[in-house]
Amino acid sequence: MPAPTSSRTLWKGAISFGLVHIPVTLHSATAESRMKFNLLEKSSMTRVGNKQVNKATGEAMPREEIVKGFEVEKDQFVVLTPDEIKAAMPRSTQTIDIESFVDREQIPSVFFNKPYYVSPAGKGGQKPFALLRETLARTGKVGIAKVVISTKQHLAMLVPQDNGLVLNLLRWSDEVRDTAGLAWPAEDTTVSAAELKMAEQLVDAMAGDWQPDLFHDEFREKLMALVEQKAKEGGLRAAAPLPGEDAPATAEVIDLTELLRRSLKGNTGAAAPAAKKAAARREAEAANDAPAPLKKAAARKSATTARASAKPAAKRKSG
């Protein structure tokens, strides 16, 4: 059986591409099933925490005497202050900024990290959300985006699934190891036609539909059965849930057709600078809060400014 749906909102923001701004929320798409044990004192059954000690002396260290250092070489550290670390943290824009659309098959599975279900926030996000999902499904593309969650910047892939979208956090390129040196078969390694035919017959004989319920974590099931048996004898103690992550509400979507038209008109084939994208987003949000006549005037002004400031796309060098 699949894990129950998580209704807790982990993140609230918007999907942004061009001038389109779709308010959404993120919900956990996975559930941790690994057994987690707490350290307890045998006599009193109270929790035992991890004590910060000096590994050389074994003495406990007070918090004010602990600093963060990055090891540049063996036993050679550079110390960073909390203010220096804070200054380097990415600014949270509460947006999933799509920077490009690529074929789904081009992304190797080793880049996949952690999935989240994406849900439209409010009635105003239903139509543009459905439009983006349907467009991705028809084109076979996925949106490659950057997003900041809990002060950490992530690379992510926005992909359609059923009637919704999934945001799959991706690993950065320097987090994926090279395959050089692995004992993979060489290119000149061949198999006979007879061997290939028998292997294909075996695959066909074992083929079936994907049914995840058929597979179980037997180790976890045995431990859980033992826990339940002992719980009947000694009772249970419930832990308080972690508080949810608060986030500011996002602006509603303005005229979707006009935003798409303006986004296409301003697209020169190259990625727009971050400053221009931010200015366009602020303009769209401001126009949303203005009366209807001002919205139209702002749209005409924005279109005129875009035509006046548009630059021809830089020619790509042929590889």
TrEMBL record:
One of its GO terms (biological process) is double-strand break repair via nonhomologous end joining. Residues 266-319 are annotated as: Disordered. Keywords: DNA damage, DNA recombination, DNA repair, DNA-binding. With LigD forms a non-homologous end joining (NHEJ) DNA repair enzyme, which repairs dsDNA breaks with reduced fidelity. Binds linear dsDNA with 5'- and 3'- overhangs but not closed circular dsDNA nor ssDNA. Recruits and stimulates the ligase activity of LigD. Residues 287-312 have a biased composition (Low complexity). Homodimer. Interacts with LigD. Signal peptide: none annotated. It holds the Pfam family Ku. It comes from the Bacteria. One of its GO terms (molecular function) is double-stranded DNA binding. It comes from Ramlibacter cellulosilyticus. This is Non-homologous end joining protein Ku. Residues 58-187 form the Ku domain. Belongs to the prokaryotic Ku family.
